[in-house]
């Protein structure tokens, strides 16, 4: 095969693990008829040029869910290859500050606890994120009860 025919896409993705005061995490379901449609994920999206990952997360969460969050700290970066799509998931721990999550760009949103995460189908790259979250427990008692949600 000619080298020019090989197309590899790379995407840097800002991903938010958003916690409420009850120790629940917000998950959203990808729209049907899209890449990995129907699977559940942590909200987020592609980092645009000129923005930091934190800015990307703030923007995506406001666009996708219409809520306010505080981006608190980085959890992990997962590099994963879906055939010819390389994604680098830059995952951050976040607190829900206010607003009721709306499924503005997804099929459905839900608050779930750490153990309920096992009941939903996530993309392959999420396995390690979920394992780490469950290992860590309720994120330092929801970062000492910050946030407002
Ligand atoms: N947001 C998010 N994306 C994830 C997760 N796990 C996972 O593999 N992904 C993958 C799916 C997509 O290939 C990519 C996210 O891209 P996207 O298509 O939702 O992002 P976007 O809305 O900014 O995309 P675009 O149309 O602007 O290219 O990362 C996850 O937990 N959250
Ligand atoms: Mg997205």
Automatic annotation (TrEMBL):
GO terms of molecular function: 8-oxo-7,8-dihydrodeoxyguanosine triphosphate pyrophosphatase activity; 8-oxo-7,8-dihydroguanosine triphosphate pyrophosphatase activity; 8-oxo-dGDP phosphatase activity; 8-oxo-GDP phosphatase activity; metal ion binding
Enzyme class: hydrolase
Listed InterPro entries: Mutator_MutT (IPR003561), MutT-like (IPR047127), MutY_C (IPR029119), Nudix_hydrolase (IPR020476), NUDIX_hydrolase-like_dom_sf (IPR015797), NUDIX_hydrolase_CS (IPR020084), NUDIX_hydrolase_dom (IPR000086)
SUPFAM superfamilies for the chain: Nudix
Family annotation (CDD domains): NUDIX_MutT_NudA_like
Binding site for 8-oxo-dGTP: 30, 41-44, 126
The UniProt record lists the keyword Transferase: no
Cofactor: Mg(2+)
GO biological-process terms attached to the record: DNA repair; DNA replication
Enzyme Commission code(s) on record: 3.6.1.55
PANTHER family, alphabetized: 8-OXO-DGTP DIPHOSPHATASE, NUDIX HYDROLASE FAMILY PROTEIN
Protein name: 8-oxo-dGTP diphosphatase
Taxonomic path: Bacteria, Bacillati, Cyanobacteriota, Cyanophyceae, Nostocales
């Amino acid at each position: 095969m000619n080298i020019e025919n090989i197309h590899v896409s790379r995407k840097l993705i800002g991903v938010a693990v958003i916690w409420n005061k009850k120790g629940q995490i917000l998950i959203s379901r990808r729209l049907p008829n899209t890449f990995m449609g129907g699977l559940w994920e942590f909200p987020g999206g592609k980092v645009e040029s000129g923005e930091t990952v934190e800015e990307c997360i703030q923007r995506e969460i406001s666009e996708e869910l219409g809520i306010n969050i505080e981006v608190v700290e980085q959890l992990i970066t997962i590099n994963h290859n879906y055939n010819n799509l390389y994604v680098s998931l830059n995952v951050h721990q976040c607190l829900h500050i206010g607003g009721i999550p709306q499924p503005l760009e997804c099929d459905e949103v839900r608050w779930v606890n750490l153990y309920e995460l096992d009941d939903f189908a996530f993309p392959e790259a999420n396995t390690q994120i979920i394992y780490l979250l469950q290992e860590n427990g309720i994120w330092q008692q929801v970062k000492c009860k910050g946030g407002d949600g």
